[in-house]
Each structure stands twice: as structure tokens, then as C-alpha cells.
Amino acid sequence: MADSSFDIVSKVDRQEADNALNQARKEVEQRYDFKGTDASIAWSGESILIKANSEERAQAVLDVFQTKLIKRGISLKSLESGEPVASGREYRIVSTLKEGISQENAKKIGKIIRDEGPKSVKSQIQGDELRVQSKSRDDLQEVIRLLKAADLDVDLQFLNYR
């Protein structure tokens, strides 16, 4: 019988992120406490640019965006935000959505699987994802449970379970 396997990836649904950004932009435009503050949020290439006339307002716009991401099912682990930076008379926050598993995190995940997972499970790094294989599907489900419980700074999805 062939080995069962699944892939561990870290991806963000770009359409859901775009929807969250549009909802946040509409809320910022309509909320009373943002009137006259020149607060805005928009895509700037691959990153997200937040502008406001004070540091607190920029943080508030970021909070609105984060709540919209959560409602859309996108983990905040995949959002990387900088500190508010003064640029002339406005403050800017540049945020990016992280995708892919870095080599460092892939090695951490592989070590967790080797140390704490069932012995029949093998993992290998393939670019920015990990492939996990075993003869037993129960062992694979145990690995998924183990990684969901682990406190990693990466948002993980489990694909191609076969």
C-alpha cells in the first residue's frame, strides 16, 4: 500500500484579504471618529498602506483592518505590521501579508514532528512548504493535531491529504 501524505503550507486567500481591506476602508470612511482625520487604508503594490494624521488614528485604522481579517478567517499571524512612521504631517503604517514557510520555520516544524510525532512519520521541506508522509493515516492526523496545538508564529494550512 502506498504512503499517505499531506502538505503543510502558509497561504493567504488574496480575495478574502482584499475584501477585508475594502470593508475596513468603507468603515473608516463612514465612522464618526475618523471624520476629518484624513485616515485611509489601501493597497500599495504588495503591501498595505495605512495613513492618518496622528499615531493613534493610524493604530485605530490598523485595529479595524485586523478585526475585518479575523471575520474573514485570515489569521493575524500572517499580517506583519510596522510601527507608525511620521511622514510630513501624517503617520503611515506599512503592513504586509506573509505567505510561505521560511526555511527556519520549516526546520522548527520538522523538528517538532521528529521529536514529538509518531515514529513512522517522515517530513521533507519542498521550497516554502513541507510534505509529511506515513503509512498510517492516524499518524498523519496526530501530526496535524500536534502542529495545531504548537505555538508557532506561522499560520498553517494542511492541504492535499491523501
UniProtKB/TrEMBL annotation:
Q: Cite a single GO MF annotation.
A: nucleotide binding
Q: Which UniProt keywords apply?
A: Nucleotide-binding
Under the heading CDD domains, the entry gives: YajQ_like (cd11740)
Please verify whether the record's keywords include Nucleotide-binding.
yes
Q: Which Pfam families match?
A: YajQ
Q: Name one GO cellular component term.
A: cytosol
Record-linked SUPFAM superfamilies: YajQ-like
Superkingdom, according to UniProt? Bacteria
The similarity comment for this entry is:
Belongs to the YajQ family.
Task: Read off the NCBIfam families from this record.
Answer: PRK05412.1 (NF003819)
State its role.
Nucleotide-binding protein.
Q: What is this protein called?
A: Nucleotide-binding protein XI38_09845
